[in-house]
Design goal:
Helices cover 32% and strands 27% of the residues. By secondary structure, it is of the alpha+beta class. The protein has two domains: 144 residues, Fructose-1,6-Bisphosphatase, subunit A, domain 1 (Fructose-1,6-Bisphosphatase, Chain A, domain 1), CATH 3.30.540.10; 105 residues, D-Maltodextrin-Binding Protein, domain 2. The termini are far apart.
Length: 265
Amino acid sequence: MPQYGLRTALARRLAGIASEAGVVLDCLQKAGCRSALKGDGSPVSEADIAAEVVISRALAEAFPDIPVVSEENAASHVSGEMASFFLVDPLDGTTAYLAGAPDYCVLIALIENGTPVASAIHSPATGQSWWAGEAVFAAENRAFSNPRALEIKPAREGGGIAIISSHHANAASRALCQSLHITEIIAENSALKFVRLAEGEADFYPRVGRTMQWDIAAGDALLRAMGGGVFDLQGRPFRYGAGPDGWANPDFLAIRRQPDLDHAA
C-alpha cells in the first residue's frame, strides 16, 4: 500500500466514489438508456442523472461541509463565492457514451481558493482510475489493487504530440496544434485526454471552443501534480469558480510539463 499525503488520500476516496458511479454507467450503456438534448444542444441521458445521484449522495456523506457544483445539477450553478467546493461531471463524453464507445469518464475535483488540489478520473469501460493530490496514482481495475505512482516523463525528442477531441476539434484547435510545432496529432473523446498527457502519451491538449469548468478541473489537478497544468492562451493558469461567463472556460492549452509552456509561447 503506497503512503499517501493528505490530499492524495482524499483523492483516493474520490476515485472510489467515481468508480461506484462508473459501475452504474457501464451497466446502463450495455442495457441502453434514454437521452435528450439540453438547452445548449449537448446531450444528457438517464445515465448522467443516475451517476449524478450516486456521486452527490456519496460526497454528501463523506464530506458534508463541502458544497458540490455538478454539471447535471442546475441549482448548484448559481452558487456564490466558495472557498472550497467539488466540481463534478458524472459522465464526461456523453456523445461517445450514447454511441457505445469506451472513451467516456467520471470526473470529480476538489477546488480550494480557485485551485484544483485533489481529483479523480475514472474510466468505466476499462475499470481504470487516476487520482491526484500531492502526487498522481493510477489503478488498472476497480479493486484498486497494485496502484502505481505516475512518474514525470522527460521531454520528448523530435517534436511533441498533441491530442484533440474526436468529436469537437475545430479548425481553430487544429491551427493551434500547428503553431506548437508538433509532429503528430491523435484524437480521443472526454477528459481521458488529460490522462494521456499525465501518462506521457501526449504533450499538448489545445482547445478552442466552449468547455465548462467541470470538464477540465480533474484533469488540471492531475497535470499540476506532475508539473504541468491548464493555461489560457496568454499563459495564465486557470482559476475555478463562477465568473462573468458562469462556469464556462476560455480557450486553453493543457500541457504535461511546465517547460512545454515556454516552448509553446
